[in-house]
Amino acid sequence: MLLIRSLVIVFLVAISEFDRNFAINHDNAGIVLREINKRRDRHGVPKLTLDNVLSKGCQSYAWKLSKSATLNYSDPTNKDYTESICRFEVKRGALSRCVKNWYNGRKFDILDPKAKDFTAMIWRSSVSLGYGDANINALQGVFVVRYTPPGNVKGLYTDNVPPRKRKQKKKKRENKQKEDCASRQDNRYVLLLSILSLVSTNWQS
């Protein structure tokens, strides 16, 4: 009886550990989704939404990567999603830095392999994001994101990777100059009226 009870406990612990390994961290997913959407907005493309089904696949593969010595892509030939992977240090701001590093790919030509994570992130036609992460050890982790419909499709880059929107600072500066100009004109009128008033007073004296 004691043996059976012990086996049941071991089984329940194993199930609990399995569920924990494959549970999606929605807090981390929210951070990455927010950071990616912030950069998509800079290029005028629609925001992505988190897809739980897609995320389960990401979570499963992240766990697999955490046990591997290399960070290989799951299936480069698949046509269901585009995938990006990042190894990160387990500390504050690490997930955001991964997204920032991907976005730095904009400095390269959009067809350059070094830009593939950037173009996948900005791809206009993608509407959903999957996310999963796992700890490699106490100091490092890995996360996987997948976009669907998939991006980085040959021949469709021009339509799906628009340039960054122009900033509005120039218009604000022009408005400020107009306001300053109007303010100077107002000051001239006040000064002119003061002189006329002074001349009129002296003339009457």
UniProtKB/TrEMBL annotation:
Q: Which parts of this chain are annotated as the region Disordered?
A: 155-182
Instruction: Domain (SCP): give its ranges.
Output: 27-155
Question: Ranges of Basic residues compositional bias?
Answer: 163-175
User: Where in the cell is the protein located?
Assistant: Secreted
Which Gene3D superfamilies is this protein grouped with? CAP
The answer to whether keyword Signal applies is: yes
Pfam name, any one: CAP
UniProt cross-references to CDD domains, sorted A to Z = CAP_GAPR1-like
Q: Where's it mainly located? A: secreted
Note the superkingdom of the native organism.
Eukaryota
Q: Which UniProt keywords apply?
A: Secreted, Signal
Q: Where is the signal peptide?
A: 1-23
A GO cellular component term found in this entry reads: extracellular space
The answer, when asked if Nucleotide-binding is one of the entry's keywords, is: no
Q: What name does the UniProt record give this protein?
A: SCP domain-containing protein
